[in-house]
Model the fold of this input.
Amino acid sequence: MKSIGINKPAPVETPGLFTQIETDTPTAEGRDILVRVKGVAVNPVDFKVRKGRAKEGEFTVLGWDAAGVVEAVGEDVTLFRPGDEVWYAGDVTRSGSNSEFQLVDERIVAPKPKSLDFAAAAALPLTTITAWEAMFDRLLIDRTATDANAGKTILIIGGAGGVGSIAIQLAKLAGLNVIATASRDETIEWVKKLGADQVINHRRPLKDELAALEVAAVDYIFCTSETDQYFDVMTEIIAPQGRIVTITEASKEHNVDLLKAKSASFSYEFMFTRSMFETPDMIEQHKLLATVAQLVDDGVIKNTASENFGPLTPESLRKAHALLESGKAIGKITFEAIPA
Done:
């Protein structure tokens, strides 16, 4: 099978950054299914692994967003059979989706939305799982209590990114008032289209931006970027007994005691936790992807794909990494399958 990957950690400007090679097609065993990959997308985890976590001299296949067709199943698989169309984000500890075929545990896979083609469907799994777990498992928002949530506000920092784009929609479904941050005309328009009630500029002091809306504090904060930059202000603007979740690493030490007087909580969301540790509730990712697939087919959730870069090639993948790493991407960048 054809696979596209890297041989060492490298910046995006590196000549010949990605290479395509022929490798053996793996065999599905146990609870694994073998998927013929038909569409993929890129995420910040891709360039983080590429820049610092890949091993020197070891061919590493990136990519943790995919949609495709089940080619074969392991002997313990009960959820799928060959020919099923599926979508998933995969497991960061295993080989990624920038290949013709990929092995993935059935418990983190679900039937893809029927209304989306493979490339479009690949835009959603990782960001959907991240946003869903962040809000409903970490912030403990009750997604069914829309009446009770109506008086509560969530601030989504980085609303136009891949995670923010789906988080806005899930928050609105839960009945929350959504304040999203965006700084450019096109990103402001994007988050409003997705349902944000109000928009503030994250390039300005957030406390002042909220004050201009006559908002002193928010019940929930979902930070999708730069934890170091926003930690102190989040402790200021979170309401008493409020909850904060972030998906980005902190490189500095922060004083969590700033949250003590408010009895506020701070947590991390990492969507690979369940697959990395094979937690007993690993099947929950299958369930939530199945639920969201139905919401997409019902027209309740909008796809967040913004650009299709065509067939997956070493050069198209490099261009996508460069755009994503620049911080100027809106929504998700997707690809079709590696050319035959």
About this structure: The mean pLDDT is 96.
